[in-house]
Amino acid sequence: MKKEDILTRGICFDPEIERTVDEILASVRTNGDQALYEYNRRFDHADLSSLEVSQEEMQKAYKAVASKFLETLKLARKNIEDFHRRQVRSQFVITDQPGVVLGQKITPIERVGLYVPGGTAAYPSTVLMNAVPAKLAGVQEVVMVTPPNEDGSIKPEVLAAAQIAGISRVFKVGGAQAIAALCYGTKTIPRVDKITGPGNIYVATAKRRVYGMVDIDMIAGPSEILVIADETSKPAQVAADLLSQAEHDRMASAVLVTDSLKLAKEVQEELKKQLMTLPRSEIARTSMENNGKIILTDSIDEAVKISNQIAPEHLELSVQDPFRILGAVKNAGSIFLGTQVPEALGDYLAGPNHTLPTGGTARFSSPLSVDDFVKKSSFIYYTADALDKIGDHVIDFAKKEGLDGHARAISVRTKGELL
Ligand SMILES: NC(=O)c1ccc[n+]([C@@H]2O[C@H](COP(=O)([O-])OP(=O)(O)OC[C@H]3O[C@@H](n4cnc5c(N)ncnc54)[C@H](O)[C@@H]3O)[C@@H](O)[C@H]2O)c1
Ligand SMILES: N[C@H](CO)Cc1c[nH]c[nH+]1
Ligand SMILES: [Zn+2]
């Protein structure tokens, strides 16, 4: 594999997946709930009698979760809240000019739909990562969708996390059909203003396709990790971190970029060894075969340049002095500093969000944040005197643009006539 081949990697546009997703979107739009029941049977092998999780199911689930894990969920919620609270913005008002008030007001989005993945694993952590910033932003109605298990249930830990996060309604549907339901609305599932949350390629593609009819947070698709490591890194730790993301999905990716040939060889051996005992080894092995790479560079600075071109979801700077190179990192969703900090820490408990841009979109997208759950409106107030002062400039501007109607809207006030 040549370096150039790696650098061309980007968001995946597989025509077959696009076609499948478009069919699902169209079917849900036309057939509503009936299509959702049908897709639940086809993709999740679940024959449901109701799409919505009942209050009894919620309560039963909460009781079924070990109290120690409830404490863990609450600790995670606290850390996520502490981090995201710093993102809350307030409105600003400018009164620098006499008779003029300018400002920006912040309004929470009214109804948001959270996608919580659930195909090959359960993701209570994703419930918290999405719901906590939504709540801090002041969103009134937060609904959640997640695929059902074959017996029609949802993992109790996921429902417990939903309750700990204050989510009002949970619906048993996943994949592109869940995104369609949130975008168009069905008899059971309310249409939302914005969809957030990660998912596999079907989910990520569906979000991209519905964008514009509904807002989305970003393309948060199959997980990715890029580890920049020098000779101070421990091969067993680097390999474990690579596999921690490879195990998410057969389409996940795990890349090591190192200036040490010795480390590269040792990590390769470790990967083989660790794969033998990893429970999700089939998924991890497939993703390593498809998207796993080791790139040897002349220096760590060159490694950073390569990483910037790939723009990974997660970047580990597993080097002696990570702060030396932090400034040179331009494109990465979340950055993990030093040999002691595994990416998995950020997945669960550190506090920053784990819903992150993938497929090279970290070039322009950011981690999920409180900002994703609010809108900004600017406002303008001028007294008549203030408008008089500036009126001729506006009239001139409008005329230069050939827009006489605009000029008149000013002159009818400042001159009492239509110019
Ligand atoms: N980028 C991030 O921030 C982030 C965070 C957490 C998880 N993830 C990713 O989320 C994903 C979770 O994937 P998952 O599959 O376990 O759960 P998922 O909930 O994303 O997807 C499961 C759904 O996919 C649909 N599906 C499966 N096969 C299909 C097919 N052949 N045709 C049409 N639809 C099909 C089904 O409807 C199923 O319900 C992984 O890719 C993981 O890496 C990303
Ligand atoms: N690594 C995932 C984001 O790509 C987030 C996650 C949740 N649970 C475990 N990991
Ligand atoms: Zn993870």
Automatic annotation (TrEMBL):
Cofactor field: Zn(2+)
Pathway membership, UniProt: Amino-acid biosynthesis; L-histidine biosynthesis; L-histidine from 5-phospho-alpha-D-ribose 1-diphosphate: step 9/9
Cofactor note: Binds 1 zinc ion per subunit.
Reactions the enzyme catalyzes: L-histidinol + 2 NAD(+) + H2O = L-histidine + 2 NADH + 3 H(+)
Source species, domain of life: Bacteria
Function: Catalyzes the sequential NAD-dependent oxidations of L-histidinol to L-histidinaldehyde and then to L-histidine.
Protein name as annotated: Histidinol dehydrogenase
Organism: Blautia liquoris
